[in-house]
Amino acid sequence: MSAFSVRTATWRDDREALQSVRIPVFVAEQKVDAREEFDDVDPVCQHILAFDANGKAIGTGRIDGHGKIGRMAVLPEWRKHRVGMAILVQAIELARNAGLARVYLHAQLSAAGFYRRAGFTAHGEHFFEAGIEHVAMERTL
After folding, report:
1. How many CA atoms lie within 13 A of 130 on its CB side?
2. Which of the 8 DSSP states describes residue 122?
3. What pTM value is reported for the model?
4. N or C: which end of the chain has fewer CB within 10 A?
């Protein structure tokens, strides 16, 4: 089960694959309203998709032009297989290639440890986004 690949994607070309991960994770599992999950930022972001050996989308993330990483999601059966870290590393690499000095994100509290292990530092008070408690985090590149 550990064989997977990661590549960059666009909303225009890869919307179905991106939605095939984000709908089960955010809308079904975490009860985020689909109108909030899919926003006007999607078309202007660079996206990252992870695929299993059969070409099925298993994880996703996005980064905007300012270095904000978001919509990190991995299907449940692929969690703990380093898929999320591979997506995050790709997002950071996209930021470096764009000449950005830092990346930042709003981490769900349950995922803050994951981002800490990747070199992110939390700052500020906790807040709610889409009904889920988050903390702001950033990493200097």
Report:
1. 21
2. E
3. 0.94
4. N
> In 10 A of CB 112, how many CB atoms?
17
Say if CB 86 and CB 6 are below 8 A apart.
yes
Q: Which residues pair with 139 in a beta bridge?
A: 103
Per residue in 56-101, pLDDT (tens digit) is 999 999 999 999 999 999 999 999 999 999 999 999 999 999 999 9
CATH code of residue 40: 3.40.630.30
Residue 40: which domain range? Answer: 4-100
Residue 128 forms part of a structural domain: no
**Angle (nearest 5°) at CA 124 between 33 and 88:** 60
Tokens at 131, concatenated? 């009904």
Please report whether residue 122 resides in a domain. no
Q: What are phi and psi of 18, to 5 degrees?
A: -65, -45
* Number of folded domains that form the chain: 1
Question: Positive or negative CA dihedral for 15, 89, 55, 72?
Answer: negative
